Amino acid sequence: MTLLTIGKILKEYKEFLTDYEIEKLRKVQRGKTDFLTQVKDLQLALFSEEWDFMSDSGADAKDRAIGKNPMSKKYTDRVNKKREAFGVSSLVETGYAEDRSSYLFCEDVVRLTKNYKERLDRKARKQKDTVYVDMDGVLVNFQSGIDKISKEDAERYKDELDEVPGIFSLMEPNEGAIEGYKWLCKNFDTYILSTAPWENPSAWQDKLNWVKKHLPDVAHKRLILSHNKHLLKGDFLIDDRIANGAGEFAGKHIFFAENGRGFEDWKKVVSYLKNLV
Ligand SMILES: [Mg+2]
User: Fold this and answer.
1) Rounded to two decimals, what is the model's pTM?
2) 15 FRET partner, CA 20 to 30 A, in 87, 104, 171, 179?
3) Where are the domains of the chain?
4) 147 an active-site residue?
5) Using CA atoms, how far apart are residues 259 and 37, in angstroms rounded to an integer?
6) What is the pLDDT of residue 248?
7) Which CATH class is domain 128-276?
C-alpha cells in the first residue's frame, strides 16, 4: 500500500501532474477545512477529468451517449497514466470514472496529511482518534473455538456454529491481537465493537468473559455489542466483514484479513496506523 500525503504527491509525483493540478493541490494543502470538504477539494484538484462531461458540447454529449469518449487520446492517456500512478482505476471508454477509487484514494491522502479541521481540533484538545476493533476473526481466532467443541455439537450446529452454547469462551486470540490491541490503546481511544448472535444468549456473556480474561485492564468497560456498527461515531473500524453495519461505518473500514487490501494481519494493521498517530 502506498501511503501518500499531499506533500509527498507534490514532491514525488510532479511528472504526472499539470501546472494547474499542482496549483490546485497546493491550495488544498493549505486546507484546514473539515475532512469531507478537503476530500472533495482534493478529488477535484487531482482528478478533475471526472467532471469533464459537465462541459460537454452537444456533439460531445452525443459521442458519450454512443459510448465514445469525446476527449482527445493524448489527454485521456495522460490522465490514465496519472490515475495508474496513484492506484486509481482508469476512466472507462466513455471517459467516465467507473468506481469510487479516486474518492477513497483522496480520503486516505487527507487522513495521512492530517491537516483537516476535526483532526486539528482534536489535537488542540489533546484528544486521540477513535478506533473500534471487531472480535471474531480480528481479536479472536474463531476456528480455535470450533476445534474444541464436541462431535455432537459440531454435528447438531453444523450450519450455525456460532450458536453452539459456550463456543465463544473456548476461543483463543488471533496472532498478534493482544499486543496489537494494547498498542492501539496507547495511541488511540480504543473500543471493542462486536456482534453477538441473537439466538445464542450465552455468547453475550462469553464475549464479556473473553475480554475480561484476555484484555482485563485495557478493555475494561470498553466492550460494545451491537448489530448496528454504522451507528458508532469514530475514525477507524478494524473488521473482517461488512455485515452488521461494518460496511456502512462512516470512518475508515480497515478490512482485516482480506487478501490484497493491505491489512492481512495485526502487524500490517499496526504498521498502517502508526502513520496516523
Ligand atoms: Mg468479525
Assistant:
1) 0.87
2) 104
3) 6-122, 128-276
4) no
5) 31
6) 96
7) alpha beta
